[in-house]
Amino acid sequence: MQHPNSPRRQLQTAYTPTPTPTTPPPVSPLTSTSSEPGEPEPCDLDRTFGPPAPSHGRPVVIEGPYRRVPDIPLYNPPNWDANNAVMIPDFRDELARLEGVVTPGVDNTPFIQYAIEALTRDRESGYSAVATTASSSSARPRQHPPMPPVPLPLPLPFQPPATTRVPTTRTARPESRRQQLLRPLLPTPQASAHSLADSLLKRGPGPHPVQPHEWRHLGADELLARAPPLTFRPWPLRAPALFGFMALCVLMVAALILSAVYSHLHQGLLGWATINGGRYFLFRIFPQLLAAAVLLYAQFLTATIFRILPFARLASEAREEREGAIFQDLYPSFLWPRLVGPWNVWVPILVSWLMNFTIPLQSALFTVILVDQSWTWATVQGVAWTLVALYLALLASMVIVWRYWARLESTGLIWDPRSLADVAAIVSETNTAADYQGTQLARSRDGIRFALRHRAGDRLGYWTWKDGRAGFWHTLGSPMDDANPVPAPNLSAGQRMERRDEKQTGAKVSAEGPFVATDQEPDPDHDMEASHPSAEARRRYLPWCLRTNQLLWFTLTTLGLVFAIFVASFLPATRITAGFAPGLKADPQPGAFSAANFFYSFFPSLLGLLPFLLFQSIDLHLRILQPWAALSGPSSSSSGAAASRSILADYAACAPLQSALHAARNRHWRAAAVALLATLLVLLPVLAGGMFMALTTADAGVRMFPNVPCFAALLALLVLVLLALAALLPARRALRMPHPVTCLAEVVGFLVGAAAAEETFRGCLSRGEMLEKMGVGAGESRWVFGDREGEGGLGVRRVRRFTETKKMRVRKSQIRRLRRE
């Protein structure tokens, strides 16, 4: 018997592993070496998913003292070719091999190996369980590390094996220090697993031939003349509209500078007349109206940038630009600035939000001063130059916007994606639809972000087959040639991707299923579709401003405010027409600044700005959800909704007042009224800022008097706000969704199912072509949003007539199976 640590024992372990019970193939004489005849050939780790190499180099034989090994039995390999001569032609027949392949022409070896690796992977360590437990197994897997470059001896003549074998002996010379350093060591199973994971993470799978399912992105120089360029920009982002808005900013700056300089040089502008005359409207109401018009257009321009920027990012050539684009917000927030994109995008957004303060400042722009014993309208110098700085900043931001969109090579769009149908046309031919399936019932955007963590590099543009087949199409897709079987870090989320503890997750989920969490702590990351959606999961989400508690609070607060204003304004003791003491010094100071006039113009206007911005949030969310409500309302559950009133409704992309007209045309009366009121409420800060003026009474006292027409219009607007809030309380069930629909990933999840498979959206190179396929004008198609058995779960789908047949797709493997039967 040999000692376990003897040199002969080490050599036998390294190069003469115990034969496996399976029958090895015969050894070709061309590849035979001085090793044992029955020794299996070592694997080639450089060929990750390919068959074993047909030949290998000669292993190094280290000579040592002669030692007989009588305890190792000899092994005679059976003649496999002679015993199985009939099976060889069938096994090598290409047609017979392809018959058993699920997808002919595609090598399934990488997928099978990855499946085995995934099934045997340890949950804690993330590596294969086979490698970690191999040391305790009797059939220990053999490790074949790559051989380092070692000087090989001269080739020896080949001697065929004899019929009767005798245990062989080997000689070995004492090893030199260099040979000891170059000897390959057998790694432990843990080291092998680490090296395998590192190699997959660093270099991924090796190069492989082009597969039939792989796509290739088409550049602008490869497109045909009949393909429209992907450079569409909505009219607010085009040069003429931007130059016109810049000209308006220049006029505002020029008017402010002229009024400030002229008032300073000539000690005023015009003489005072009365608080109810035309001059009062010119100096205390009209400046805010101009500022309100500029603000509304700046907000509309910001909303357009938000809508188009995710598509422009998805069309970028740089992968880092595309990462996270499908999770970027499609709609802005005017109550608080929402900064997105690079600096030349978020700077104009911030400046546009700062323009909200121009209305209160314009309210305090003019006051009256005493010149030669007569009151004269004059410009407040400090306010005027502050407004000049703001409008110059707006002008500079518009130049930045123009330069950014003018230098943008591609937006990835053929036409303006204003509605759900436009987005469905973009994703109708995507090859990533399978990843979106199951995200419909996710609780939040974080859960969808985790499910789509591999879709960070998807690109929007024209695609074609990578193997050279004819045809091209426009969609959001992926080349599918660099799939990484190991989960990569979630770059779009900016955090390390982790697998949540299933025990903790399961403990927090209620008995109804994985969609309804307990009251202790919700689980937003793993709220995926796994069964038929429950009613609570289907109608889980409402925006914060449309929820019952918030709407009740808004309604009751507005009711109390209106009631208090009416009582305080018309009681004899507190009648507002009698005026009230300002409590501040009303005398004009140098620069025509009056503390009382500034305070009672700027702060009432600022207070009126808050309900205007709050109601804008309510209006925006209602315009976003109204098409979904039309698709899932009670009247649409059976017969569906017309396309023009549902998936073609573009309320969220409309300009001010335009959304109200479109909603009224589609008979969405509540959405039309709220949209109209949201635009009219800009008059709240305008009227509130010009409502009060410091005047001298007959007894030489100073009191603040209101402008009665402004005060009456203000009260009428507050009553309309109260009625609108009360009208939003009932019939909100149709507005409920499983999760928000404010980014592309959240919207696409509902569109990649049956609606995206419709021929209506496929191959459309213009919006007019899509409208023609949808039958707008005559025989208009009808659509519904819901869940139906056998149609891909929750999503948007077309309602079919009983006489209409549905086209079915049949796989080639199914056709061959039917032919065999």
From TrEMBL:
<feature type="transmembrane region" description="Helical">
    <location>
        <begin position="242"/>
        <end position="265"/>
    </location>
</feature>
<keyword id="KW-0472">Membrane</keyword>
<feature type="compositionally biased region" description="Pro residues">
    <location>
        <begin position="18"/>
        <end position="28"/>
    </location>
</feature>
<feature type="transmembrane region" description="Helical">
    <location>
        <begin position="345"/>
        <end position="371"/>
    </location>
</feature>
<feature type="compositionally biased region" description="Polar residues">
    <location>
        <begin position="1"/>
        <end position="15"/>
    </location>
</feature>
<feature type="transmembrane region" description="Helical">
    <location>
        <begin position="591"/>
        <end position="615"/>
    </location>
</feature>
<protein>
    <recommendedName>
        <fullName>Phosphoribosylaminoimidazole-succinocarboxamide synthase</fullName>
    </recommendedName>
</protein>
<keyword id="KW-0812">Transmembrane</keyword>
<feature type="transmembrane region" description="Helical">
    <location>
        <begin position="551"/>
        <end position="571"/>
    </location>
</feature>
<dbReference type="InterPro" id="IPR021840">
    <property type="entry name" value="DUF3433"/>
</dbReference>
<feature type="transmembrane region" description="Helical">
    <location>
        <begin position="285"/>
        <end position="309"/>
    </location>
</feature>
<feature type="transmembrane region" description="Helical">
    <location>
        <begin position="706"/>
        <end position="729"/>
    </location>
</feature>
<feature type="transmembrane region" description="Helical">
    <location>
        <begin position="383"/>
        <end position="405"/>
    </location>
</feature>
<feature type="region of interest" description="Disordered">
    <location>
        <begin position="1"/>
        <end position="62"/>
    </location>
</feature>
<feature type="compositionally biased region" description="Basic and acidic residues">
    <location>
        <begin position="523"/>
        <end position="532"/>
    </location>
</feature>
<feature type="compositionally biased region" description="Basic and acidic residues">
    <location>
        <begin position="496"/>
        <end position="505"/>
    </location>
</feature>
<feature type="region of interest" description="Disordered">
    <location>
        <begin position="484"/>
        <end position="532"/>
    </location>
</feature>
<keyword id="KW-1133">Transmembrane helix</keyword>
<feature type="transmembrane region" description="Helical">
    <location>
        <begin position="671"/>
        <end position="694"/>
    </location>
</feature>
<dbReference type="Pfam" id="PF11915">
    <property type="entry name" value="DUF3433"/>
</dbReference>
